[in-house]
Amino acid sequence: MDHWTDSVTYEGLATPEAKASLAKYDTIEAAVVGGLEAQKAVGKPFKMPESMDKLPDDVSRADFTSKARGLLGIKTAKDVEALAQLDMKMDIAEGSEPDENLTTMLKSFVVENEIDTGVAQKFVGFHNRIMKGAKEQFAKTEEDKKTQAAAATNEALIAHFKTEAEVAKQSELMRRAFQNKAGLSAEEYEKVGDALADSAFTKNPVLARALLTLVSPLAAEGTTDGGDGKGKEEIKDPDEGSPTYKALNWSK
């Protein structure tokens, strides 16, 4: 059935905008009453609807929502591409990169729920700060575990070799054995020493004891090293030359 506005010929009411405004009225009489009510409201304070259900239709509700967001300064994105300026690296931990899957999910959520882009940016920073703190806490926990394991290994080695000085001596002999028997330069042994410290001397007391017991006797006699065959160097104090010694915080 045609709407009554289809027969309106008056120029002021025949425009698409006018017909769209009048379309919510089923009859001419209803439109007149609506106009009178609107006239009465002119100059009166605006009254918020008690609920969105009080608005007559979806068009009115959508229009009201859009205008209310504009008054509040709320800016939303129509699609994910409109969020290209969202800084996913805000407050992110040094050396970290934004997770691509999380970025896609977040942007889709922001669009689907019409979340203010400013609020979305604040959430990104909030999330990254939480993850940064968790990363730092994890690193500290791992470092504490490593320190405790190194102390336990040190105690076990002292118990086996009787004194801390003897453990230091065996550690230095092992260094000399690697350099003199395996032909390693001082720089190369530093890499070996770091690997041994990470795998044995801070984690496995039994393996550390076995290495010192088996490798140390292979050290050459004398007071010079030089596994690279390009010269001799004086044996340095274990505090300076032994990664194992330093890893376990041994003292003279």
Note the topology.
Layout: H1 16-22, H2 28-41, H3 58-72, H4 100-112, H5 117-161, H6 164-181, H7 186-199, H8 205-215, E1 224-225, E2 233-234, H9 238-241, H10 243-247
Antiparallel strand pairs: 1-2
Features:
3 domains; mainly alpha; two-stranded antiparallel sheet; 2 strands; 252 residues; 10 helices
Main pleated sheet: 2 strands, antiparallel
Strand content range: under 5%
What is the total domain count? 3
Uncertain stretches = 222-241
Summarize the helix and strand pattern as letters.
HHHHHHHHEEHH
The tally of strands reads 2
**Outline:** rod-shaped
End-to-end separation in angstroms reads: 103 Å
Neighbour order of strands in the largest sheet: 1-2
Average per-residue pLDDT, rounded, comes to 79
> What share of the residues lie within helices?
55-70%
Q: What is the number of helices?
A: 10
* Secondary-structure class: mainly alpha
Output the radius of gyration. Answer: 39 Å
Quick gist of this model?
The chain is mostly helical and 252 residues long. It contains ten helices and two strands; from the N terminus they run ααααααααββαα.
Could you explain how this protein is built, in words?
The protein is 58% helix and 2% strand. The protein has helices spanning 16-22, 28-41, 58-72, 100-112, 117-161, 164-181, 186-199, 205-215, 238-241, 243-247, and strands at residues 224-225, 233-234. A two-stranded antiparallel sheet has the order 1-2. A hairpin with a 7-residue loop joins strand 1 and strand 2. Helix 6 crosses helix 8 (205-215). The longest helix is centred in the middle third of the chain and has 45 residues, at 117-161. The chain is rod-shaped.
